Amino acid sequence: MNPTRIRLGDLSVGYIQSLADAVRSHGQDPTELLEQYGLDSARLAEPGARLSIPRYMRLGFAAMQLCNDAALGLRMGNASRLAQAGLAGVTAAQAPTVREAARTLIRFEPLHASNYRGQSSFHEDAHGAWLRFYSISPYNAYNRFVVDSVLSGWVAKLSKLSATAVLAERIDIEFEAPVYAVQYQGLSLGPISFGAEHNQLRLSQQSLGLRNPDHCPSTFRQLLQLCEQELEHKTRTRTLRERITQLLGPLLNGGREPDLEEVAARLKLPTWTLRRKLADEGTQFRVILNETRRDLAMAYIRDTDLAFGEIAFLLGFASPEAFQRAFKRWNGQTPGAFRRGG
Q1: How many domains does the chain have?
Q2: Strand order in the sheet with 50-52
Q3: What is the model's pLDDT at position 281?
Q4: In Å, what is the CA distance from 314 to each residue of 112, 212, 301?
Q5: Which of 29, 60, 97, 108 is exposed most, by the fewest CB atoms within 10 A?
Q6: Is 47 inside any structural domain?
Q7: What's the burial of 53, exposed, middle or buried (CB within 10 Å: 0-12/13-18/19+)?
C-alpha cells in the first residue's frame, strides 16, 4: 500500500465561497489570503476541485485571525447556500420538503465532502430527526469552526429552501462551550448543549414537513439519478482490501482496535469466509490493519498539529508508548523525527 494514498479527507472548493463571504462581512478582502492557499479565481471555478481538510482547517484559522473572530464558522454557516454543495446541493434545492432536502444533502455528502474517519448521517423517528455530523477530534482553534459552519449551515440552507425559518429543537456540540458561546444564541439556532456525545441538530416533524415552493418533481428525479450515478462511480471499489480499509477509519478510535469478527460483521460475511477471501488476495486482516494505521499515522503527523498521544487515541492504541513503538517499527524512526523531517 502506498503510504501517501490515505488522506484525512477533502471537500469542494465551493465551501470557500461562504468563508470568503464571512470574511467580507468583517470589512476584509479575502483575496490575498485565498491566493496564499492556491485558491485564485481559476481554482475556485474549476469543476470538481477539492481542498484537503487539514489545509481547509489552516485556512479557516488564518481567516479567524485576519478577522479577529473565533466565531467565524457561525458566520460562514449563516452565509452558506445549497449550490455551494455542488450537485448534491443543487439536487437538494429541488427536493419537495425539508426532510428530503436534508436526506439528499447527507446521502450524497461524498460528492462534495469526505472524511476518512466518518460521515454525516440522518436518523428519523416518530417525533423528528437528528442530522449528525462527524468531525475530526480532539478539538482546538483549527477545527471548531468546521462544526460551527456545518451545523449553522444546515439550518441556513434548509431555511432558505422552505422560505420559512427552520429552528432546530436542539443542537448538540461535542466540544466544551467556547469563549464565543453567546454568539450561537444570536443566530436563533435553538437550544445548545456543549460537551455532548455527537455533533447534531434536532428537527421536529413539523420542520421536516415544510414544503419547498420551487420543487419540480421531474427535475428532482433527474438530478437524483445523476447523484446516484456519481456516487456509484465515486465509491466503487475493486478489491476486498479497499473495502476493509474504508471501514477501518471510523472503527479505529478510543484506545481500541477493531478485530476480524467486527469487520466481517460490517461486511455481512462469515469470519472464515473473510479470512479465506483475504488469503485469495494474498493478504491478511492484521496486515491491512497495520498498514492502515501506519498510513493514517503518517497523515496525522504530516498534516495536523495533533499531539502524539492524541494520534495514538485516534488510531486505537492502548497507550502513546504502544503507538511510538509501532511507528518506529513501521518507519524506522520515531514520530517526532518523522514530523521534524516532514
Answers
A1: 2
A2: 50-52, 9-12, 113-115
A3: 86
A4: 24, 41, 12
A5: 29
A6: no
A7: buried
Per residue in 127-176, pLDDT (tens digit) is: 999 999 988 777 888 889 999 999 999 999 999 998 888 889 999 999 99
Tell me, yes or no, whether 203 and 303 share the same domain.
no
Q: What is the pLDDT of residue 258?
A: 86
**Domain enclosing residue 191, as ranges:** 70-234
In terms of DSSP bridges, do strands 192-194 and 170-173 run parallel, antiparallel, or are they unpaired? parallel
8 in any annotated domain: no
Residue 27 falls inside a structural domain: no
Q: Are 97 and 209 in contact (CB under 8 A)?
A: yes
pLDDT tens per residue, range 107-130: 999 999 988 777 899 999 999 999
Whether residue 200 sits in one domain with residue 260: no
Rg (CA), the chain: 21
**How confident is the model at residue 166, as a pLDDT?**
84
Is the domain of 213 the same as that of 96?
yes
Instruction: Find out whether 124 and 101 touch, Cβ atoms under 8 Å.
Output: no
Q: Are 32 and 139 in contact (CB under 8 A)?
A: no
Instruction: Give domain status of residue 268, yes or no.
Output: yes
Mutual angle of helices 144-162 and 98-107, in 10-degree steps: 140
| Nearest C-alpha neighbor of 118 from the set 262, 224, 246, 25 | 246
CATH code, domain carrying 323: 1.10.10.60
- For residues 323, 329, 330 and 336, what is the CA-based torsion angle, rounded to 10 degrees? 60
172 and 92 housed in the same domain: yes
pTM of the model: 0.83
Average pLDDT over residues 13-42: 95
